[in-house]
Amino acid sequence: MTELDSHPQSRVRNSQPAGIGRVVDLGDVCAWNNLGRNVVFASRAFEPCAVFDHTVFPDDDEPSQYDLDVHAILDVPVAGVVVVLNHLGLLRAFRQSEIHTTGAPRRIEPVWTAGFAEDMERVVAVGDRLVGSRPREQHAGGVLVSEPVTATADGGRLDARVELETWGMVTALGTAHTGGRDHVAVGGNGRVGLVPIDRGRVGRLRWEAAVDFEPAVFAWDGELLWVAGPELGAAGIDDYDWEKLRGGGFAALDVADGNTVVRGRFAHDLAWGNGGTAVVIAAGLVCGIGRAGEVDVYSTAGSDHPARTAAFAADSLGIAHAAVVGDRILYGFNRGGYRLHTVALSTLAT
Predict the structure, then answer these.
(1) 300: left (phi > 0), else alpha (psi -120 to 50), else beta?
(2) Helix (H, G, I), strand (E, B) or coil at 261
(3) What count of other Cβ atoms lies within 10 Å of the Cβ of residue 291?
């Protein structure tokens, strides 16, 4: 286990509690959000190379916190940009060429900005479209599917339409490319579904499957659709009561029919929370991040006897945000300070 400085240096000042927001793998680079401070793009060795640290609310404490409370960092290759969506629904697009830099980290600015929808906790990119859970404050069902990102005008608004409204509230979103088609995986209320999507048009639900936990995280390994989450009933817990999110489990589903191929239960409580990623899957391992920094390790074959790394905190660090970057797990916590932690997958498999 290695601790990293998350590079929180910023021109922005506010009373945001120190912590990490989204952590993502973007292929050649990775990125993370220092809550209330900045967005950092870094090499696969976690060396910062580009930083965005500006707010449109420099003199307003709370709005500036929300401005740099990031809900999604998504690569949109067909548009040549990486988009960053904040809590307020402001979408900022950065040229891919500007985040793939070397040398000392430099400040970058968006090539365009646009309004989208506020409080979207789960968002994925499919081609040139964004697909997101509807704003939590509305308690509305289904997803929003955007117009093409490539059609966005600077300072405009990204139009979107509602799809899958009858599904109910969406708590997990993922993507899978199978059978020559793009698909979106949706989860919520102990259910998982898979729907095809083509140029923004969502098709008929291919299948729906029940799971014995509340879906929070998806992962597609090219063959199976993995899903994980806390115990059922999580949807009724307030966003700020994340410590009440307990237990849970994981499953691997056959994309052809939704049948369960692998299932398991988490032996310990993980660092679940709204918008967080407390579970990652790679190298034949299901890895759950605990609230004190420990990593619970299960086999993707469904082992009931997990390994566990040592905790490094005495108290809860809050919600985990994790991603697999190369052969390592990179993670931080929303109340764990401006620190990141990394562990090699090879050390967890032994």
Answers:
(1) alpha
(2) strand
(3) 26
